[in-house]
Amino acid sequence: MMWHHGGNWDGFFPMMFGGGIMMIVFWGLVIWLIVYLVRRSSNEKPYPKDQAIDILRQRYSRGEISTEEYRERLAELKDSLNV
Q1: Residues in domain SHOCT (predicted)?
Q2: What is the pLDDT along the chain (83 residues), one digit of tens a residue?
Q3: Which residues does 59 contact at the CB level (< 8 Å), separation at least 6?
């Protein structure tokens, strides 16, 4: 059997090129995932308009404000917060 010790680089360069692209894709996905998770965690805070309306509903349900006052304040909140 004869061994070939020549310079057969046919498989080396495509593999090196493909491996480089795969490394770039891998790190791109890792960075995208980190950015996605950071943005997602910062968006989980309750939105102020939702909080204001929830507080108003709680006060109304406890009887602290009348129906008329509830409707007026709710209309004002919706107008000012563009709900």
Answers
A1: 51-77
A2: 455 555 555 666 666 667 788 889 999 999 999 999 988 877 655 566 778 888 999 999 999 999 999 999 999 888 876 64
A3: 65, 70
Instruction: From 78, 22, 28, select the one nearest 53 (Cα to Cα).
Output: 78
CA distance 66 to 59: 9
Backbone angles phi, psi at 28, to 5 degrees: -60, -45
Q: Say which residue the tokens 């059997």 belong to.
A: 1
Residue labelled with tokens 């107008």:
79
- For residues 71 and 57, what is the distance between their CA atoms, to the nearest angstrom? 10
Axis crossing angle, helix 67-81 with helix 48-61, rounded to the nearest 10? 180
- Say how many C-beta atoms besides its own lie within 10 A of residue 72's C-beta: 12
56 and 73 in contact (C-beta within 8 Å)? yes
